[in-house]
Design brief:
Distance between the termini: 38 Å
CATH class: Mainly Alpha
Number of domains: 1
Shape: elongated
Radius of gyration: 18 Å
CATH topology: Arc Repressor Mutant, subunit A
Strand content: 5-15%
Oligomer: single chain
CATH superfamily: Winged helix-like DNA-binding domain superfamily/Winged helix DNA-binding domain
Length: 109
Amino acid sequence: MSTAVADAEPAVFAALADPTRWRVLRLLAQLGEGTATTLAAQLPVSRPAVIKHLGVLDRVGLVTRRRTGREVRYRVEPAQLDATARRIAALAVAWDTRLDRLRALAEEA
């Protein structure tokens, strides 16, 4: 795993821990892309709140943005999500290995 990904992990997990940001990310994934206005219309928060959440997601690399005229359009950045998913999977394997060892020790006793 690259150092940049490892350094980004705490910020990515913190961003994903917020239920509203998680909903914004899921909604963007469903829509393919969207603006703060289109997202706010489908969420129980204001447009300025959506803009702040999108800013956090953008800073940690979970979404990308592009300006089209006066609009800023956002979309999910799969690379950061994939890296995070791989890290979680590796942690799960490590814990399963530890639990298997503990189980084997308990059965020997």
